[in-house]
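Z., the sequence and structure:
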Amino acid sequence: MSLTRLRFGKRALTLAAIALLIAVIAIGTAACNVGLSPPSRLPSLSGSIVFGQQNTGIWVNGEGKVTVTPDVAILSVGIESQESSVAQAQEKAATAMNAVITALKGCNIAEKDIRTTSFSIIRVTRYDEPKQQEVTIGYRVTNMVTARIRTLVQESFPLDYKAGRIIDAVAQAGGDLTRINSISFTVDDPTAFNSETRQKAMADAESKAKQLANLSGVKLGKPIYINESGGYVSPPTPIYRSAIPVPAPMAPPTSISPGEQEIRLNVQVVYEID
């Protein structure tokens, strides 16, 4: 009899423990859900989708470009001297560079258009095989400038002619120490052509927008957004030259061809759809 009661007592204790555990879980779940809003509903796929203003209309890019003849030549020229001592190399380089600068100014290049771009003194070495080490054989002094060559109002000859004559004069002045790295051509004031390139860019944008509207079966409205970028000049193609020898007295003049360049301007335009 006592054994039966003991079994029923253990079963009752087990059921009570299970009931208590379920109650604790229920209370915890209720506490976690306090203050939470109902789950948001997914938007219906049916019906219209409203886009922001930045996603409406017809977006196009327009480009305007103008072909021009360069009016400025940029000459990279200098002197390179190598001697057994720094003092000797620097003295020879300074003498030759002064002659080059004098030649540039003598060709009507303003002082403001002559700018030093690099100056260096480098120890020159060679590998001594018997000693198994580097030994100094001299010192090299390099002095480079850029000169902006313009055709002045009082000058009757074109830019390419002047650039060729300046190269000859510089080579003669600097002698065997002359170094001409490159010559390139550009436009001094590309903004002077912006009005024409801007008109072409807007016309290009409008033509594209009209075509898109016709293909889409909609009516093109007015522009509601315009953004301009550019005024970009196609980079000049430099003509590279190495050490220029002293020209002979009757040598033909150096021939230079500036060619043409493009100035570009881009616009981004957004048109309404009526």
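Strands lie at 58-68, 72-83, 114-128, 133-150, 178-186, 220-233, 239-240, 261-273. The longest strand covers residues 133-150.

Let me know what you think.
H.
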